[in-house]
């Protein structure tokens, strides 16, 4: 497939340095809170801040990437992997709590609590490593020439999203593709938010945020459905499964309708954000 050049407006190095400074502050704060108490709220906050920092470090030109920047990005990614099981346990526990009283559900809730403690304990090592990582102070020189890396990142994400959308809107069972689409849409939004805002990009940011919410709910349902599918099929477990599947279907139909409205003519976040497609 021919590569389509995408005309991205300039991204001022000073602006990226400011984003980087704020991201560092959020990560440091959320790490302190998580290490003090890895509860559900602190887990969500830590994952969001680590993902944003990793995204910003990903658009630093390769020639400017300090060893400490690469180290921080790698440790952010490791932390996201180790805390994903903690987050999954929280989701399943929340959904199952309404069916408490059933012996099988009570056993599942007890097991989830124990598993979460193990997962949270395992994640502490990754959290400490990121906490102890040296994150250099922002220097606008590090971000000089970042526009090319922003263009490269958005171009790649646009291609991936464009390939995934036709698949998932035609087949509700594309679990992995829906999850991948959510991650790509989230990263696209984070990169978009690093740039000077325009009316079109602001609209696209809101579209992607709404996608992130509904696709996140679908992902949560998939996690719960998979977990309950391995459990003893008591009446309460079957009821929980039916409810989760019904909710997932409603959210999926909501996403498909939104896609039909927002991407009717071109399945491209890049075009929706108001960026011009250049020559081939």
Give the N-to-C terminal Cα separation: 10 Å
Structural class: mainly alpha
**Low confidence ranges:** 1-7
Helical fraction: over 70%
Number of self-contained structural domains: 2
Instruction: Tell me the radius of gyration.
Output: 21 Å
- Average pLDDT reading: 87
Tell me, briefly, the overall form. Answer: flat
- Main sheet characteristics: 2 strands, antiparallel
DSSP helix count?
Answer: 9
Strand coverage percent: under 5%
Please trace the helix and strand order, writing H or E for each element.
Answer: EHHHHHHHHHE
State the total count of DSSP E strands.
Answer: 2
Largest sheet: spatial strand order = 1-2
Descriptive report:
- This protein folds into two domains: 11-144; 145-269.
- The protein is 74% helix and 1% strand.
- The chain contains nine helices and two strands.
- The chain is flat, with a radius of gyration of 21 Å.
What descriptive keywords fit this protein?
280 residues, 2 domains, two-stranded antiparallel ribbon, 9 helices, 74% helix, flat, disordered N terminus
Concise account of the structure shown:
This protein is an all-alpha fold and 280 residues long. The protein has helices at residues 13-36, 40-58, 67-96, 103-132, 146-168, 175-192, 199-229, 235-262, 269-272, and strands at residues 6-7, 276-277. It has two domains: 11-144; 145-269.
Structural topology:
Elements: E1 6-7, H1 13-36, H2 40-58, H3 67-96, H4 103-132, H5 146-168, H6 175-192, H7 199-229, H8 235-262, H9 269-272, E2 276-277
Antiparallel strand pairs: 1-2
């Amino acid at each position: 497939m021919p590569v389509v050049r995408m005309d991205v407006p300039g991204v001022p190095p000073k602006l990226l340095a400011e984003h980087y400074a704020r991201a560092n502050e959020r990560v440091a704060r959320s790490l302190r809170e998580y290490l003090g108490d890895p509860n559900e709220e602190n887990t969500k906050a830590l994952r969001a801040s680590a993902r944003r920092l990793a995204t910003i470090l990903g658009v630093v030109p390769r020639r400017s990437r300090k060893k400490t920047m690469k180290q921080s990005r790698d440790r952010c990614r490791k932390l996201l992997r180790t805390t994903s099981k903690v987050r999954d346990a929280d989701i399943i526990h929340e959904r199952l709590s309404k069916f408490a009283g059933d012996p099988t559900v009570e056993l599942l809730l007890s097991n989830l609590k124990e598993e979460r403690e193990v997962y949270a304990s395992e994640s502490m090592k990754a959290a400490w490593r990121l906490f102890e990582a040296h994150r250099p102070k922002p220097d606008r020189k590090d971000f000089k020439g970042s526009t090319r890396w922003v263009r490269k990142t958005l171009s790649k994400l646009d291609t991936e999203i464009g390939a995934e959308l036709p698949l998932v809107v035609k087949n509700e069972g594309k679990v992995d593709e829906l999850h991948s689409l959510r991650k790509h849409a989230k990263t696209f939004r984070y990169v978009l938010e690093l740039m000077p805002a325009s009316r079109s990009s602001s609209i696209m940011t809101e579209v992607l945020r709404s996608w992130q919410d509904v696709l996140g709910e679908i992902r949560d349902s998939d996690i719960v459905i998979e977990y309950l599918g391995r459990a003893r099929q008591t009446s309460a477990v079957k009821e929980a499964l039916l409810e989760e599947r019904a909710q997932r279907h409603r959210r999926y139909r909501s996403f498909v309708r939104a896609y039909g409205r927002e991407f009717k003519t071109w399945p491209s976040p890049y075009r929706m954000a108001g960026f011009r497609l250049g020559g081939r």
